[in-house]
Design a protein that fits this description.
Length: about 280
Amino acid sequence: MLFFSGVNLKVYIRASGPANVTVLPKKEGQPEVESSIVKVGPSGYYYQGVWQALGGTTVRQFKAPAISQCLKGKVVHMHGDSTVRQFFEFLDAALPGLRVFDLHSTRQIGPFVALDYANNILVKFRFHGPPIQSAHVSNSKLRYIANEIDGLIGGTDIVVVFGIWAHFRTYPVQLYIRRLQSIRRAVVRLLDRAPGTVVIIRTGNPRDLSQINSDWHSLQCYKVLKTMFKGLNVHLIDAWEMVLAHHLPHNVHPPPPIIENMINVLLSYTCPQMGG
């Protein structure tokens, strides 16, 4: 009952002394020291509700016509958990020409397929392999991301988006590391046979806290993922920073304004010269 009493859960820690910090000017002659290993700083910020990335590609704004133009002639493969499913749902709602084909799948797990025949756009979503913590689902509907990537030919008209983190929160981080190692090897093989394939990875994000949820483990997964794919020709949707910097409350499923900004990042990687 202590955790439900509000005594020490989601309670601000008040300063015992002055609640301010004094920044002193640099002393004259003090040498500049910069670490070549650890770089500390945000990946971006919001200005008037729009995500501004600090580094990487320029994030452009995409409305429905521009989204259709960007994805025209492309196949988008989405793999991961329900936080990636939000991308599929956003595109389904944003594009009037996109139609979801009824595969009689459960809403939580999928798989899902949507087609825009006029613009030759195909969007797919499939849940990642175990472990999962959701409704009952047949194993036949689950696929390991590495196996799915190995089944792709790849090419400039192929976009691969994946994110995997939330369902590993109650497991040792070693299990998460082994899963990412398998996915990384598959991504390397894909980029070797089809270097023009666009690969985009969604990181985990802070979430609403409870007795069974902790951002500490999610933060470890976030750091592992960034380290694992460093140096590869892949793109990162830094969901951790994008949720942390936004004024809306944390949620395992970020609200629509944040998802829209993530989609803008995704499309900016897919079509860096477009927008509108």
